[in-house]
Each structure stands twice: as structure tokens, then as C-alpha cells.
Amino acid sequence: MMKSHMFFGIVLLLLSGNAYSQPQLSTDPSERGRQVTDWMKTNLQLTDEQVRKVEAINVRCAEKNIELEGNKKMTKATRQKYLTSNERYRDNELKKIFTTEQFTNYQERKKEVMTKMMKSI
Prior knowledge:
The protein is mainly α. It has one domain (2-17, 26-120). Helix content is 80%, strand content 0%. It has helices spanning 2-16, 29-44, 48-70, 76-97, 100-120.
């Protein structure tokens, strides 16, 4: 359960930029993907072309995550396996779109988030 919260927390924290003022994630995949993309656009200085590509990836990941969140038949371990796989997919796709500097910044922010999440648990 702790790991699941960490992955959802990553998205929440990326959106808010602050571990203590987390917005409620939308249950609409398009809206959730747009929220994450907006954060990336602002914090990673994405170009318009990058925004278009990144939003498609974020919406796809949101669709998968929302489906997983709603699947009560799946064990937590299995759900976590799929969430981790989905996050790995996102990172691999973003690496193709981001500059080296943007991707490094993105990874650093994720590490910060993980540290904050571990301290708050």
C-alpha cells in the first residue's frame, strides 16, 4: 500500500510542487493528463511541440492508472506491478521527447518527491 501511495503521490506532488498542498486528482483521464502536462510545461520549460507529445503520453498513463485504481479484483501487489510498469513507460517516452537537461530536472524532481513521501509516511 505504501508503494501505491508513493506513485500517486509523485503525480500529486509534481502537480503541486509542494508536499503539503496536494490537489485532488481528477478521475477524468484527459483532465488528469492535462494537469500533469501543465506542471511539466511550467517547470520544465517545454516547447509547444513537446507539450503536444507529452500530453498524449500523460493522458495514456492516466487512462491506465484510473483503470487500475478502479480494479478492485486485482491484488495490491499486482496493481503495484502495473503502476510501476506504467511509470517506467512514461519515463521512457518522456526521455525521447525531453532534452537531456529537462529529463535530468524531471528525474531530480521525482527523487525529491520520493524523499518527501518517505518522510511523510
